[in-house]
């Protein structure tokens, strides 16, 4: 009799322990909002979640890289736009300087403004990014990894943009073209000045052509960055959904399960307490 009672008590204690464990499990699922709390809960699901987590971490890093690329591309575009405006003004000044009605003093003013434009353009070409690195690099273009096996350059290199411009006398740098234009305007001899201004005007317009092409190329680079960002943002949503499907907990079900187990445990504990109040003589009856 005593042995049977002791066996039933052991079974009841084990049942209550199991209920308490199930309640703790449900509480952990609710607090973490995950149903896979350890790999042993679902080995296949846990492995897939690990793969998704790695993919998410990679894509977060790529999105941060793309944010840097977007900033560089935007600044590159702004600088090229400013350079284009400066060249437009230089072209206007050269067209005005061809007019022989202007005095030497007037041409000196034109030359002074052209040299100021050259200085401004030089400053724009030598701009540095937020890290202190040249925006337009003189060596290889900056390559930023933005996806598995994919890198992109947000800005073209210095030489490709501002050097080797097909000037009248051969390839020339943009800064030299502008300074030569200023010098041409101040030549005293009318015939020599007219010839030099014609050459410099052609060279300035060649510079304009180069910068127009550079701005078009910069637009293509920016569009590529935007396209990859959009793709990664879509992938981010997809991966998050897949992860929730695998490890996400059904909150209403988990709460209901916890409440059900809690009621069962409390009822069992109440009954167990009443049973334990019985004396040995009561059990022997």
From TrEMBL:
Residue ranges of domain Flagellin C-terminal in the record: 205-284
GO CC term (a single one): bacterial-type flagellum
Record has Secreted as a keyword: yes
Subcellular location(s) per record: Secreted; Bacterial flagellum
Keyword Amino-acid biosynthesis found: no
Domain Flagellin N-terminal: 20-124
GO MF terms held by the record: structural molecule activity
Keywords annotated in UniProt: Bacterial flagellum, Cell projection, Cilium, Flagellum, Secreted
Family named by the database record: Belongs to the bacterial flagellin family.
PANTHER family, sorted: FLAGELLAR HOOK-ASSOCIATED PROTEIN 3, FLAGELLIN
Function: Flagellin is the subunit protein which polymerizes to form the filaments of bacterial flagella.
Protein name per Swiss-Prot or TrEMBL: Flagellin
Organism of origin: Allosphingosinicella indica
